[in-house]
Write a structure and sequence with these properties.
This protein is about 40% helix and about 20% strand. The longest helix is centred in the first third of the chain and has 13 residues. The chain is α+β, with helices and mostly antiparallel strands. A hairpin with a 3-residue loop joins strand 1 and strand 2.
């Protein structure tokens, strides 16, 4: 079988192909971001958040497979799938190719990721990888100072929605949701014991807690939001993750699955975004009457402090305020925080996913109240 492999990879190279699966076109697509000169002057917008979120995905998720292959493979995937603001010849074909990647067998996707991890990148890309890799930043910070902290640069790539709120389009086929579906995982809450003292250490192993007890969400969230979260029996679709590396803009990541019939109110109240349903489709409506159909998803960002407190309660609001990213935003006079993100699909029957970037201490306080 003839394979279209990028320069430097031979069909016999075990890092290039898995026998029987033509993956060359995929390697070529992602390879571009590794072999071309790095011309960005600032960190890609949202990189730290995306990196932390990738750790919460299932092992079968394409992005998680690339992450497991190493930061070089993952950043090529991240750059290739975050091109909503860029226009170039062949973009549509690239997007279709990326969407089709999810349909490949796991072994093929791993082979693609391994091939990318083994490539020798452009010198400028290699330097950028060393600088941007969250794990390396954490190690360097620990070696230089046990008290230093890194903050996420949020200045590049921000497009404002309604003068304050940001919107980014996810163009790939959706992976399994951050909040696990009860039909996929019927076990009770899973968590590794976490002590407050040890949790404050930078070397904390990743902690992931799923399916919060209903009585827990009642202790943390206001009444409306308690009713807006999907539940199965006495468990609610809420996930909290404390990443392995306590660095950058992510110390605690919280996800809530919002029922379809609650999404329009939550989006308007929290983000000032108007959603409408027509038949089986869900649209984002702009102030001038124009509308956008997610393809297949859209992520909405930008919530004001007072609306966070009103809709999500004082405990969540305080935890968001304690996020390193939020502190950096405040220092730069950013009113609408990107620590609150809602991801919706174009299907009126799908839940929305509300993601929250929390500070470590505030996140631990929420965890202790939620999973009591």
């Amino acid at each position: 079988m003839s394979l279209d492999l990028p320069t430097g990879l031979e069909p016999s190279d075990p890092q290039a192909v898995l026998p029987g699966h033509p993956i060359g076109d995929y390697v070529t697509l992602f390879r571009r971001h590794l072999v071309a000169e790095w011309r960005r002057k600032k960190k890609p917008y949202g990189l730290d958040e995306a990196w932390a979120k990738a750790h919460t995905l299932s092992e079968e998720a394409t992005e998680k497979i690339f992450l497991d292959a190493g930061f070089q493979a993952w950043i090529s995937y991240y750059l290739a799938t975050n091109i909503a603001g860029y226009h170039y010849k062949g973009k549509s074909a690239d997007l279709n190719k990326i969407e089709s990647l999810d349909q490949l067998p796991i072994e093929s996707r791993r082979a693609i990721a391994t091939a990318l991890a083994g490539l020798v990148p452009h010198a400028t890309v290699q330097e950028a990888i060393q600088r941007l890799n969250p794990s390396k930043r954490a190690r360097n910070r620990t070696e230089s100072s046990s008290t230093a902290s890194a903050v996420q640069n949020t200045s590049e790539g921000t497009a404002y929605f309604d003068n304050a709120r940001t919107m980014s389009v996810t163009t790939r086929s959706p992976e399994p949701r951050d909040v696990p579906d009860d039909s996929r995982n019927s076990s009770d809450t899973v968590a590794t014991p976490i002590a407050r003292a040890s949790a404050l250490n930078a070397g904390l192993g990743e902690q992931r807690l799923e399916k919060a007890p209903v009585k827990g969400i009642a202790a943390v969230l206001p009444q409306y939001m308690c009713g807006a979260i999907r539940k199965s029996g006495m468990k609610a679709s809420v996930t909290m993750t404390f990443p392995h590396e306590q660095n950058g803009g992510i110390h605690c990541f919280m996800s809530l699955s919002i029922l379809p019939n609650k999404l329009e109110f939550v989006a308007m109240k929290l983000l000032g975004v108007h959603l409408e349903t027509e038949g089986k489709m869900r649209y984002v409506i702009f102030p001038n009457g124009a509308k956008m159909l997610p393809r297949p998803e859209v992520s909405l960002q930008g919530a004001m402090d007072e609306t966070i407190r009103e809709l999500l309660g004082s405990m969540i609001a305080s935890a968001v305020a304690g996020s390193p990213l939020r502190k950096e935003e405040i220092a730069n006079a950013v009113l609408a925080t990107t620590c609150v993100t809602m991801t919706i699909s174009n299907s009126a029957h799908d839940d929305g996913i509300l993601n929250l970037n929390l500070g470590l201490e505030g996140g631990i306080a929420v965890k202790e109240a939620l999973f009591m």
